[in-house]
Structures are given as C-alpha cells and as structure tokens.
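Fold this: Glycosyl transferase family 1 domain-containing protein
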Amino acid sequence: MASLSQNLVLTIAVILLYNTTKAMPKQVTIITRHTKGGSWKWGKELAQKINENSPYKVHLTDNLADILKNHFSTHADLVHSAYPLWPRLYKKPFVLTIHGNFRKEGWRQKFFYPKAIRSADTVTVPSNFLKNELNLERVRIIPNAVDVNEFNQVPFRQNLDNPKILTVMNFNFWHKAKGVIEIAKVLSRISHEKRQNMEYTIVGDGPERLKVQNEIEHFKTDFLKVNFAGFDDPKKYYANADLFAYVSGFDNMPISIMEAMAAGLPVAANQIGALSEIITNGVDGLLSPDPENYKYNVIRLLEDSDLRQKLGQAARQKVKEKFDWSVILPQWINIYSELLK
C-alpha cells in the first residue's frame, strides 16, 4: 500500500514537472561584442523587443566566460550570436548574424567566420549587398531596425542662415571614419565659396577618432564650426539638425542613417554598400557617386527648402513602413519559432 502511494506521488510529481517545464518560456542567449553602437546596440534592442513581444526569454551577453560556456554547454534552448562561434559539443540551435564584411577585418574573423557559417542552423545578414559581397547562398536577409516612435519629427526650418549638419558614426574602422574628413572638406569648400556660416557636429567615438579630429583641423574656416560630441545619445542631435551627412569608404546598412530618416532629416550620403537598399535616390534621400556630386547634393539641400522638407517626410515614412521594429521583429520571432519547434 505504501509502495502504491509512493508511486502515485511520484507519478503526480512527474506530471507536474512535465507541465511546468512545458509552460516555461524557451530561453534564447544573444551573444555580441560590447562596442559603442554597432552590434551591441542591435543585440540590446533585439533582446528588449523579443522579451517584450514574444513568448521567448532572451539573455544578452558579451561576457567572455558566458561566450566560452555557450561553445560547450548552456541553459539556453537557442544561441543567437554576432560572434563567429565554433560548433557546439552539446547541440543547440545556432543562429549566426553577420553585420559586416569579415574579410576586411582581422585574421581571427577571416579564420573563424567560415567555420561558424558552416555550423550555423541559420545565417542572417542585414542586406542583399552583404549577401553578395560575402557570396553567401544559405542565408536569410533581415534588415536592421529602429523604433520610429522614439524619434520625434525634426522641426523644419525653412531659412537656413546658419545650417546645422550632423554625422553620427563609430570610429572603429579607418575606412569608415575617414568619411567624416571627406564631409568636412566638402563643407569647408561650400562655406568658403558661399561665405556662409555652418555648424558641423559629429557624434561618435572609437580608436580612429583622434586621428580624424586632427585631420579636420586643416579644414576649419571662419565660416565652418566643427564640434566633436563624442559618444552620446544621438536623439537630441537629430532633433537640432537640418541635414544628415554620411560618407564612408566601406559600409553595409548604417543604423545611424535609418535613425536620421526616422527623425525626418534629409540625408546626403555617398553611394556605397547597402545604402541604396535604405535610400531611394531623389525620393527619400540623396546618394552621390563621387565627391563633386556629393558637394552638389549638399548645396541643393542647403538651398532648396522644399526639397529638404519633401525628402525628410518621405524618409520618415520609408523607415516606418520598411525598417520599424514592428515590421522587422516578426521576422526574428519566425526564425526562433522554426528552430524551437
């Protein structure tokens, strides 16, 4: 009789444990590097949105011990990494997200990424450009995203007696950072030729910042004021700008451009990377194939208030329809759902 009771209790306990485990949310670990902006910002926002709007529980980490642990054992049901992880000894569904061209980075990236790509259950990139650049076939394209509701429409100024130009960029790689020097050159020429006061603000930080800052000293004029704001929340800078300027030697899908568009700023950028997947030239921004055309486009935006207003409004609408988290988040949830069936 006692044995029967014990078996009954054990059976009930197993049923309760099964039901409890069944009801527990699936655990996801997102692994990324803790940099100022870039992949850390992407991972932080993705984790927050998943936790708020899905049945999954996400843990974000950049801790080396956690990362090593996830190579071998983890309580997570799924590992989503912006790091090139090795194959796991304990099989877990593995999503790899690649944000840039690792072939242009250090030897570690060149060595580890191909192995990670082969071991991943799903590989994602933000753009068709990067897919083609890396010659990837088995890949899902999920664009970067912004929360449009976090960005107020920039107050429109029709008359620009002292235009405020803004760039938001990280200074982690020289091929990107040197674009700020090119913008300063263009603004220096325009301000001198037009005899017009301008204010150029640069938000961002990184190892190449000091080098860029020293180079820009050569292009300051009596008419051009240059401010380096360092790493700061860019929202207040978008709100005070008239024009967003962006030039890069190599790029993919900069979130800062999408944020500027979400704020309703007209964007002047060079035609590189996946920028044509964000901006439709002449419709919601201006893209330039060379420095002379870039100068021409900046002058157009400074002198044509109707064009500035039209492009800014169209840019905000574009981001709302194609790159808002409400559009992009379901794509991530769908990937997790497929792998956690």
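The first strand starts at residue 27 and ends at 31. The radius of gyration is 24 Å.
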